[in-house]
Amino acid sequence: MTRSVLYTSSPLLASKTPVWRSKLIVAAIALGFLVLVGRAAWVQVFNNNFFQRQGEVRFARTLELPANRGRILDRNGLILASSVPAQSIWAIPEDVEGDPAKLRKLAQLLEMPYASLRKKLEDEDKTFVWLKRQVDEPVAKKIAALDLKGIYQRKEYKREYPEGEAAAHVVGFTNVEDHGQEGVELTFNSMLAGRAGSRRVIKDRLGRVVEDVGDTVPPVDGRDLQLSVDSKVQFFAYQKLRDAVIEHKAKAGSVVVLDVTTGEVLALANYPSYAPDRRRNLSGAQLRNRALTDTFEPGSTMKPFIAALALEKGMVTPQTPIQTAPGRIMIGGSTISDAHPHGVLTVNEIIQKSSNVGTVKLAMQMQPREMWETFAQVGFGQRPQVQFPGVVSGRLRAYKTWRPIEQATMSYGYGLSTSLFQLARAYTVFARDGELVPVSLLKATEALPGLRVFEAKNAVAVRNMLHMVTGPGGTAPKAQTMGYSVGGKTGTAHKQEGKGYADKKYRGFFVGIAPIENPRIVVAVMIDEPTGGKYFGGDVAAPVFSETVQQTLRMLGVQPDMAVKPQVVVNAVEESF
Known about the structure:
Elements: H1 11-14, H2 19-46, H3 49-59, E1 60-65, E2 72-73, E3 79-91, H4 100-109, H5 114-121, E4 129-135, H6 137-146, E5 151-160, H7 168-171, E6 173-174, E7 180-182, H8 183-187, H9 189-193, E8 197-203, E9 209-212, E10 225-226, H10 231-247, E11 252-259, E12 265-271, H11 284-287, H12 290-293, H13 303-312, E13 321-323, E14 328-331, E15 334-337, E16 344-346, H14 347-352, H15 356-363, H16 368-377, H17 404-411, H18 420-426, H19 428-431, E17 435-436, E18 451-452, H20 456-469, E19 487-497, E20 500-514, E21 521-528, H21 537-540, H22 542-555
Parallel strand pairs: 2-10
Antiparallel strand pairs: 1-8, 2-3, 3-4, 3-5, 6-7, 8-9, 11-12, 11-21, 13-16, 14-15, 17-18, 19-20, 20-21
Helix pairs in contact: 4-6, 10-22, 13-15, 13-20, 15-17
């Protein structure tokens, strides 16, 4: 039986509901809806910056499109540095899955201990970690073949240096971000680097690109840079320098080769060196470009400048006799001596036999200002105008502070300091008939005018003296070169130690010109602290000069100016220092 509901018999149902109550409920619901609509509009339309930014932080990424770094070329177009594609390995640690065997194989390919790999994958940042930057292509393919979840690869560029150790101090290197750190790579970084592009994308949680957002800015590749250096000359100079340093058990050495017709640097070699693309456990001694950054007292290599100044002032002629007996001279209470007493020497012979006494007698007839001006004119005490990091100026004190003994010692290379590069450039005044040549590490399109320092006839006269140095009776017969006439000056200087000089530590130098009648190159060699029994510049540095000159002139296509026959090398006269 169905029971009917009698609304009239139920007091609750029979009571009338006020109209305002239902309207209030409907109004409340409508108001709530309007609040939600307003809030949605405020969040999504009027004030959506914050939430848009938060979304982008989680999903939007700006990908850098790396520019290809410009190449560094030698004067003949051979590559000294170039960039090649290389994959960098990264991971999302929380997503990495794989059996231990595969992970051990991964660690092996990355050349890292398995424990180190596990530590990286347990990093607090669970969304991104670099495992290794710029691995070789074959290694990257083997890693991809492991098919490990959470391990990814990114394309970058890796710098390669075909000439290795031989050109390391010139070219320098870049870091893993492809920014120049040393050498030409640092000096011309902005030109070589170019400008990176960018691409705005949306990524999913696995790092995969879902879609592009906005316009892509393409990268601008870096420009190529052509140096004045000849890679073949550079390699040969480095090789001969390395052999000499090892043979004489020396601490280090440097070679500079300049083209005197254009001022171009053909070679700038140092030993010890390093491989630019393998730089683990390097020391500062290996990284320094000693030819440009290290200074030393130049010793007897300064004597030709005193002879040239004496000729310039009309004080002497090349044949003027100077009494050097008894082989010593007193200046201000100090004694200056020759290695051997010589008696009467002409100005030619003073340079040929490297007489301290003869040089001092010439210098003490000059005003300190005159010597200082000549030294300054040929570049001593001034930073060379060559684009390279760490170039030093050396030290040349103001002439007003010179005491007589200091004027005397400066005439044969003590009391001032210079780099090997400065010394090589200074000798261009003799090679270019009295003009100091502006130098450059970049390939020159034309020869630049030099700065006149000496009259041509006086520069030629000193060049003949330098030629005598390498002949019989000179201090450097070992500098003689098969097929080419040469000239130059030896130097042997005690090394400074504390406030004085070390008794048994020396630097041996040789700076020379070839061919002597029509000079094409200046070559400067320095051997630092030889300990193999020989230390005179004529013994340790002159042979490196000889071999470097012969190879360089042949590569430049310079015809021999002497009959090619075995050179008779007599015992060198010991130089005074």
